[in-house]
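Course assignment 3, question 2. Fill in each field.
Student: A.L.
Task: Predict the tertiary structure for the chain below.
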Amino acid sequence: MSQPIPSEFNIVFAGGGTTACVVAGRLAAYDPLLKILILEAGQHTLNKPIHVQPYQYPFNQAPTSTTVTFHMGNPSPRLNGRAPIVPSGRCVGGGSCVNFMAYTRAPASDYDDWGVDGWESENLIPLMKKLETYEVQPDRPSHGYNGPIKVSSGGCKMGFADEFIQVGTTYHKRQYADDTNDLETCNTYSPWRKYIDGTTGRRSDAAHHYVYNQAHNPNLQVWDGKRVNRIIFEDKRAVGVEFASDPVSCPDADQSSSIVRASKLVVISAGTFGSPAILERSGIGAEAILKRCGIEQLVNLPGVGENYKDHNLVFVPYLAADEAVTMDALWRGDSILQESLAEWNSSGKSLIAQNGFDSKIKWRPDDEELKAMDPAFQPRWKEFFQDRPDKAVAMFYVFAGYPQPLSSILPPRNYMTARYCTLYPVSVGSVHVDVTEDGKEQMDFTTGFLDNPSDIVPLNFGYKKTRELLRRMASYRGEVAAGHPDFPEGSAAACREASGSVDLNAPDIVYTTEDDEAIDRFHRDRMQTMCHSLGTCAMKPEADQGVVDSRLNVYGVSNLKVADMSISPLIVGTNTYSTALLIGERAAMIIAEELGINCI
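Answer field:
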């Protein structure tokens, strides 16, 4: 898709992430004569190994990466003064080209909870099925079998999956289920499917499967390396977009601004960080925010940039047996890498087509576990979870390898990582534009992580429970002490190497009050984003800090919509790629209806 000259299109997308690719791709397929432009600050991803080879996903989050943007939050006392960092996709295809490819779907009730006309689960389930090809099992009523996005078990199975499930169904006394992504099942151990094409072994992302596959259509254009500054209005009607070459993607390019006009519609699709920033730079937002930045207000919309939410993640490393199969050797570039690449190139199989996690539980505490948890969680349990059996409190899973910061200083051997993330944390943050003293734009980002006292409780319990699960797995060889809480000297919880796993019926580790304090400190020091940011242009009533209506129209102006994870009014209990795709499918349908285009 070459860079053309035209200065006017029918629809212009400000941002080229997951949802933009879905909407633009669907509309182009519905009406190939529609002139569509996607402006994306990041670079093209077409057939680049770092994006299409699944095993390479951790490299997108390396400190030198330009395929994601690292957003630094404000220091928080709840994080022991730490300034958290939250990455987001920064390339054509956005998060779908850099994420961990973990296939999960929210319970159907999450969408009903939104309370938004047209976005009820009964309207969305057909779209969930439309977007996927579920290659795992046939004839599942909630899954689709003819969509652009492929879902499979990956290129090979890893032994940790069976070990984790075996311990979970015995020691942890939970059931097994083949499919916990049927929109209702949880609290069972299950295999973890992936957004990987089971035939080619390639990542299944929105850029390749909605946009790049339409390279034959000259009316669908993607201009990469273009950062959108603001929306151009005439009498509060969006008529175009002002943009410039992105200084990261195009450091040597002319930074002067250009304008491209949109005859029918402008769609902001720059994500949870980018979309509210574009609105605020365009004069749409809270008066105080705009005033401090010297921006003339066009529409008073105080919900812009508010309602920020994310899942809370913790990863804890363990030593694994020498004979275990992990991702570590691939990430180190050992000799197995070339063998695996050769197999992947010929058959689409091998560890190249893996992400390292093959099993999980969407966990709800039983009565005994609830009693063991800090009482600060009880009100949240009773108010939100107790009578909603489809809502999981957290996900527990084991990861075959250790791609995190400590890996550069750890000896080359096999590792496994316990990961646990909370799915419905209460805390809320915000994202706004700001200016430095010398007039340069910056971001005022408050994550809100752990602000609500109930949010840390499942993490503290998650550490203890996942440690018990992993130390019963056959591949367990002890803990990597540097990645665990700093327990007091002489503690029964002290971390150490081990020659093998403990017996399934061995007693659990007993933690003292001092141990519990060490775990709490550890989580405030180490808890991180799940990279599932959402909510900052919420689809809610304007009086309730909403930014867009049920048709995705921005309040107070015309011909301007927002379509990405920023519109989600509530947090969803899933890895958010599935929801970003779904929002894209629904947005494409809405726009097609309004333009009189048949979208069957």
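Instructor remarks: The mean pLDDT is 96. The radius of gyration is 24 Å.
Grade: pending
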